[in-house]
Design brief:
Layout lengths: L1 E7 L3 E7 L4 E5 L4 H11 L2 E6 L5 H4 L2 H8 L2 E5 L11 E3 L4 E4 L2 E7 L8 E6 L4 E6 L2 E2 L2 E2 L7 H12 L6 E4 L4 H11 L4 H15 L7 E2 H7 L8 H6 L8 H13 L3
Parallel strand pairs: 3-4, 4-5, 5-6, 10-13
Antiparallel strand pairs: 1-2, 2-3, 7-8, 8-9, 9-10, 11-12, 13-14
């Protein structure tokens, strides 16, 4: 298995998951042209689109690519009427295949109610495609879900094996890490992550592909138990984790 990162729109990422026989799945076909170019460049045979959620900036290429290439389009069952060209609705625990690659579907509501993560355990390599639920050092806005749902979804992702690489929907990492540093200024892992992200972006390279372990150490939305983070938000040790997450998300919404 290999993962090809495809920049789309202004700051979106689509991905091409390539099996050993050259068959491939497209994760989040944000727009058709860059994905089509990547397919030709990588000389792969696409078989399906795996959509993480229904927002236009993740599915804008679905109809064109599905029609042109004869692809199945996968999304959460609840998004049947909202996700363009969808042919298969999945629930938590379902699996999807492309060649010798098998992905387990995770229902991770919060950003949207029908958000899906795709977790691939390739033995020597594990990856998860999280859309706009879990970002590198951040999480998505709560457009449809509740803080409790987001907390549960992030907890589900945080329990994946620590070496699992995270491929999310947007290049928001530098801003997310600035916010993380504002909440936990003494967190040395955040400082190192900021340095790494700055070098990557200076070289016009993506920051995606962090690990679950790194996210546990740097992502404020996975660190709601941190005393320093709670103190910055004006919350004490008696506040429950969902309350802390909600406060952190509200603070991020206003962060510039």
């Amino acid at each position: 298995m290999r993962v090809v990162t495809v920049p789309c729109l202004n700051d979106n990422y689509a991905y091409i998951v390539v099996a050993t026989n050259g068959d491939a799945a497209i994760v989040d076909a944000s727009e058709a042209a860059p994905v089509r170019d990547a397919i030709r460049r990588e000389r792969v045979t696409p078989r399906a689109i795996w959509s993480t959620h229904h927002h236009w900036d993740h599915v804008g290429g679905n109809e064109e690519l599905a029609r042109e290439l004869g692809l199945d389009v996968v999304g959460h069952a609840s998004d049947e009427k909202r996700l363009p060209a969808m042919t298969r609705g999945v629930q938590a625990g379902d699996v999807v295949h492309v060649g010798d690659v098998t992905a387990k579907c995770l229902h991770i509501p919060g950003h949207t109610l029908g958000a899906v993560g795709y977790f691939v355990d390739g033995g020597s390599e594990r990856v998860v495609f999280t859309g706009d639920t879990l970002f590198c050092a951040g999480c998505g806005r709560l457009f449809e879900g509740t803080p409790a749902q987001m907390h549960a979804s992030l907890g589900q992702l945080a329990r994946l094996p620590p070496d699992t690489r995270v491929f999310c929907g947007h290049e928001y990492t530098e801003n997310n890490l600035r916010f993380a540093a504002s909440l936990e200024p003494s967190n040395a892992d955040v400082t190192r992550a900021r340095e790494r992200a700055a070098k990557l972006r200076a070289g016009r390279r993506p920051t995606v592909g962090t690990t679950i372990d790194e996210e546990r150490r740097t992502n404020p939305f996975l660190r709601v138990g941190s005393p320093e983070l709670r103190a910055t938000l004006g919350l004490g040790t008696d506040a429950d984790d969902v309350t802390v997450l909600a406060a952190a998300r509200s603070a991020k919404d206003a962060f510039r």
